[in-house]
């Protein structure tokens, strides 16, 4: 069996209220990010207290997490674009190192 090659990229995880999902998606698309995963109804506790994951008939009041993997040079555009937003709204951004097996899927 051939050896699996892994390539270093960055993983960006953004958690915001559902009503701001379109802003995050637009930011990623304008930065040239090739793809993302959206997780709806995120539960958790932070500085604003506990957030319930599933509210009937109202996904805008729940939290969403948008996860994307990208080259390091795209991370700066994401951080610059979301900083003014986070100065006015609740939310959080995590950036971490990740290794992927199929580099062509993340280079756009």
How would you summarize the topology of this molecule?
Elements: E1 7-17, H1 21-30, E2 37-42, E3 44-46, E4 49-51, E5 63-70, H2 72-88, E6 92-100
Antiparallel strand pairs: 1-5, 1-6, 2-5, 3-4
Describe the structure in your own words.
By secondary structure, the chain is α+β, with helices and mostly antiparallel strands. It has one domain: Alpha-Beta Plaits (2-Layer Sandwich), CATH 3.30.70. Helix content is 25%, strand content 37%. It contains two helices and six strands; from the N terminus they run βαββββαβ. The protein has helices spanning 21-30, 72-88, and strands at 7-17, 37-42, 44-46, 49-51, 63-70, 92-100. A four-stranded antiparallel sheet has the order 2-5-1-6, covered by helices on one side. Strands 3-4 form a two-stranded antiparallel ribbon. A hairpin with a 2-residue loop joins β3 (44-46) and β4 (49-51). The chain is globular. The mean pLDDT is 88.
By DSSP (H or I, 4+ residues per run), the number of helices equals: 2
Main β-sheet, spatial strand arrangement: 2-5-1-6
Mean pLDDT: 88
What is the general shape? Answer: globular
Summary, kept brief:
Helix content is 25%, strand content 37%. It has 108 residues and is an alpha+beta fold.
